[in-house]
């Protein structure tokens, strides 16, 4: 994984070379810049697979095809076998891209099983293609200069000062210079939001998730698992611990899994994570932060994650602080549990869905928007310190299996909310006055902040990215992380638009008041993968 930047059709080479330094935090192991005429392909590498020879840009045999890529191609060994007449220059998993292009032209992207953003330049006709992975796990932006140049960057800060117009590169899409436009390469059955009717088969779901985790253990460097003690990360940690011993990583670095957790002193997440870590036998690392630590980091967080979305900033801050400490231990990547709440309807508000059809459509909307929220957080909060996060719940095959289940089988889950959010709100209230809120619509007519916390983040964001407010950050009403459409499910929500789960917490808990916390956790596990049908080897105690 890395940071990429490409400038195509730029006559001013000094501009192209200057902006590459803005992404150095993403790749501390190698900096590469290749120029062909008025095209520049730059790369900041975090070396994880083949650290000795996988530096970029990558080439085909005669160097007529050039690729700079941020990603992990998990099926690269299988793809190499399908290319017997090609000679590979490196052992990098991404080396297959140039050769697949030679064989299949622009229609090879769906063959890649992994996460990726890449720019491919064909010097034979000076054409290029750009592609982003199915869900948008890797971050990517595209911009256009007044001189006709096209700019591609892993982060917005690579484009902010040099493009007349820029926007998020849409996930699951390819941009072709020959066609001068985008086309979708990722077209799974669930994307149409048609309601599936397949019965729930826990063994099918289990196998799909196990394979999603196992394929992500591809590495030549030390790694660990993010463990909050909740269902999502506990399942990831359990499968990783079970299968680690038989991997190449275990041969190089040992079979003892390291787990990491962050929280306020005494928080329930820390307690739950410790219980799961003790059960699994991981080497557990517990990091603490204070509300003031988080507040002090807010400006750095917004600069790195490049958004003013309230829930994303709240969740990114602890992850940002933890990532720095993880990297200091010599760990280069972590496996994490993002994406399950979107796929299974795990947010608190889902219990208000009027029927299974609306429930399913909301999960589809949530998955389609992940690149603007949890994927953005997981990618940029970690890469701020040169750390990579891998997310098995967002594996293409696993999503297909999970989204093919009749939504009747999917249930909501209880989540904990800590005083971290209260501390943020109190801090914002000190910096944003009531008078400022009265004029919010005049100052910020687009995505007008409706809370003092949102206004505070917006002020910081506008200082860093004054041109980006209309183009890169989502908006609209939200309650408990919902889409704007789901707010219509309950009339009371329109007067309580807090984007965190606490907005729906009271009504949710009332539906579960006959169960204690231990029973809730047991129900959560049973709903996704029944323990008597397919035990995963993890017991979560309350």
Short descriptors:
about 550 residues; alpha+beta; 6-stranded antiparallel beta sheet; 19 helices; globular; disordered C terminus; ATP binding; EC 6.3.5.4; nucleotide-binding; asparagine synthase (glutamine-hydrolyzing) activity; AsnB_N
Structure description:
With 542 residues, this protein is an alpha+beta fold. 35% of the residues lie in helices and 16% in strands. It contains 19 helices and 17 strands. The chain has helices spanning 13-19, 76-81, 96-104, 202-215, 231-243, 248-253, 268-280, 291-305, 310-328, 340-344, 356-368, 374-383, 396-403, 419-431, 434-438, 440-443, 452-464, 505-510, 517-528, and strands at residues 2-8, 30-36, 39-45, 58-59, 65-73, 114-122, 127-132, 141-144, 150-153, 165-168, 173-176, 181-184, 223-226, 258-263, 283-288, 333-335, 388-390. The strands form 3 sheets. A 6-stranded antiparallel β-sheet has the order 2-3-1-9-8-10, covered by helices on one side. β4 and β5 (65-73) form a beta hairpin. α8 crosses α14 (419-431). The two termini are 37 Å apart. The model is unreliable at 514-542 (pLDDT under 50).
Q: What does the largest sheet look like? A: 6 strands, antiparallel
Which range best describes the helical content: under 10%, 10-25%, 25-40%, 40-55%, 55-70% or over 70%?
A: 25-40%
Percent of residues in beta strands? 15-25%
Radius of gyration: 23 Å
Tertiary shape? globular
Q: What distance lies between the first and last C-alpha atoms, to the nearest angstrom?
A: 37 Å
Give the strand tally.
17
What's the arrangement of strands in the largest beta sheet? Answer: 2-3-1-9-8-10
Low-confidence stretches: 514-542
Summed over residues and divided by their number, the pLDDT gives a mean of: 86
Structural class: alpha+beta
Query: How many helical stretches?
Result: 19
Keywords: Amino-acid biosynthesis, Asparagine biosynthesis, ATP-binding, Glutamine amidotransferase, Ligase, Nucleotide-binding
GO molecular function, one term: asparagine synthase (glutamine-hydrolyzing) activity
Protein name: asparagine synthase (glutamine-hydrolyzing)
Domain Glutamine amidotransferase type-2: 2-180
């Amino acid at each position: 994984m890395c940071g990429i930047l490409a400038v195509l059709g730029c006559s001013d080479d000094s501009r192209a070379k200057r902006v590459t330094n803005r992404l150095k935090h993403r790749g501390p192991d190698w900096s590469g810049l290749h120029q062909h005429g008025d095209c520049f392909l730059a790369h900041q590498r975090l070396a994880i697979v083949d650290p000795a020879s996988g530096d970029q840009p990558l080439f085909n045999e005669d160097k007529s095809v050039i690729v700079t890529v941020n990603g992990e191609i998990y099926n690269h060994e299988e793809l190499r076998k399908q290319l017997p007449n090609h000679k590979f220059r490196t052992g990098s998993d991404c080396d297959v891209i140039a050769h697949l292009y030679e064989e299949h032209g622009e229609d090879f992207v769906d063959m890649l099983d992994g996460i990726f953003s890449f720019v491919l330049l064909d010097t034979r006709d000076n054409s290029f293609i750009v592609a982003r992975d199915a869900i948008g796990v890797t971050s990517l932006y595209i911009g256009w200069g007044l001189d006709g140049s096209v700019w591609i960057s892993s982060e917005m800060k690579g484009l902010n000062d040099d493009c007349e117009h820029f926007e998020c590169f849409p996930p699951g899409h390819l941009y072709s210079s020959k066609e001068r436009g985008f086309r979708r390469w990722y077209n799974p059955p669930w994307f149409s939001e048609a309601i599936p009717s397949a019965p729930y088969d826990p063994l099918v779901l289990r196998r799909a998730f196990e394979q999603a985790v196992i394929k992500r253990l591809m590495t030549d460097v030390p790694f660990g698992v993010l463990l909050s003690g909740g269902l999502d990360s506990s399942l990831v940690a359990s499968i990783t611990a079970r299968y680690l011993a038989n991997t190449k990583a275990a041969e190089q670095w040992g079979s003892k899994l390291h787990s990491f957790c962050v929280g306020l002193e005494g928080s329930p997440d820390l307690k739950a994570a410790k219980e799961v870590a003790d059960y699994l036998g991981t080497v557990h690392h517990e990091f603490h932060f204070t509300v003031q630590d988080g507040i002090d980091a807010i400006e750095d967080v917004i600069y790195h994650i490049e958004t003013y979305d309230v829930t994303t900033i709240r969740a990114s801050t602890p992850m940002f602080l933890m990532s720095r400490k993880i990297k200091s231990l010599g760990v280069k990547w972590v496996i994490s549990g993002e994406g399950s709440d979107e796929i299974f309807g795990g947010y608190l508000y889902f219990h208000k869905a009027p029927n299974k059809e609306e429930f399913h459509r909301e999960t589809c909307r949530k998955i389609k928007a992940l690149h603007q929220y949890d994927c953005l957080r997981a990618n940029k909060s970690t890469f701020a310190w040169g750390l990579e996060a891998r997310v098995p719940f967002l594996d293409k095959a696993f999503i297909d299996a999970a989204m093919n289940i009749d939504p009747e089988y999917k249930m909501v889950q209880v989540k904990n909310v800590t005083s971290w959010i209260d501390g943020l709100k109190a801090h914002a209230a000190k910096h944003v006055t009531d008078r400022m809120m009265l004029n919010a619509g005049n100052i910020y007519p687009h995505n007008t902040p409706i809370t003092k916390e949102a206004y505070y983040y917006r002020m910081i964001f506008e200082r860093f990215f004054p041109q980006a407010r209309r183009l890169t950050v989502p908006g609209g009403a939200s309650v408990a992380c919902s889409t704007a459409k789901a707010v219509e499910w309950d009339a009371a929500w329109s007067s309580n638009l807090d984007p965190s789960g606490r907005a729906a917490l009271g009504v949710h808990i009332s539906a579960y008041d006959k169960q204690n916390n231990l029973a809730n956790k047991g129900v959560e596990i049973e709903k996704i993968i029944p323990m008597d049908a397919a035990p995963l080897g993890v017991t979560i105690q309350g």
